[in-house]
Predict the 3D structure of the following.
Amino acid sequence: GQQLNQSPQSMFIQEGEDVSMNCTSSSIFNTWLWYKQEPGEGPVLLIALYKAGELTSNGRLTAQFGITRKDSFLNISASIPSDVGIYFCAGISGGSNYKLTFGKGTLLTVNP
Amino acid sequence: DVKVTQSSRYLVKRTGEKVFLECVQDMDHENMFWYRQDPGLGLRLIYFSYDVKMKEKGDIPEGYSVSREKKERFSLILESASTNQTSMYLCASSLLDRDGSPLHFGNGTRLTVT
């Protein structure tokens, strides 16, 4: 089946630093999604990307849909303590949104 | 805003019990999903449904069944709970959309089977 390689697995950063994480796959996706999950909560959608090359921002978050349609990255600028959580990428293929593949997540810790 | 509500945040059940996990969404979404989330294994799809009374197996359906009698409600059933079903269970919903509509998740139910 399809697999997404998400990296890094974890990050420990200082408040104010910028963060970058990415997902790659051997398969092509039509849609890329980025979620954040805080402890004890469900994942919350951060950004959705629908076109190759698309660059979308949501506050301090910026995500891009790779031009090959096989990768995506998420950047967080000027991190703050409440950015702590697990960030997941997800890819949707085949024009049918129940063919959704998740990355294993990046655990972000921000030291004040 | 889409709201996906799972009826219980925490459940403790005994081995062999029949367990019902309930999920309700308020956005008239066609698709509904049940995932389980375990450390190191990520999110794994158990079952999904794209319409009332319709269901499809996901990647790990063994030991589970589902019910969708109304569009807004999707239930996950553990016919005879076992300790290896201790996990975080996440319900999600989305539009039936060829472009790939994002999934919206509930807050999860942490199930412990003793």
In short: Chain B touches chain A at residues 4, 9, 31, 33, 40, 42-43, 45, 48, 50, 56, 59, 90, 92, 94-108, 110 (CB under 8 Å). The CA atoms of residues 42 and 109 of chain B lie 16 Å apart. Chain B has a mean pLDDT of 93. The radius of gyration of chain B is 13 Å.
